[in-house]
Amino acid sequence: MGKVILTVQYDVKETKRTDYLAAVEKLKAHYATNQFVSYSVYEQRGKQNSFAEIFMAHSEVAYKKFEESEDQTADDLTAQLQDYLDGKTKYTTYMETK
What we know:
By secondary structure, this protein is of the alpha+beta class. The protein has three helices and four strands; from the N terminus they run βαββααβ. It has a single domain, classed as Alpha-Beta Plaits. Helices cover about 35% and strands about 30% of the residues.
């Protein structure tokens, strides 16, 4: 089975950047304890305040277990992020080719 990558892309309101980055640090700490995925956040080069969250699972099974392992803390932190976003959020799931 191949790896699975979930990307969550969005722009952050300029006035909420500091709050957003603080919330992301909490998410990073939370997901550091999740055995099913690695989690990181990137800012788009040349486009300030445009971010992508990257979740990488080593297999489809691990990805499904990650989805099942989501808890109230993750839900609360993700909801908090929504307050800082400017516009739409794009979700994309990639499956590794064989």
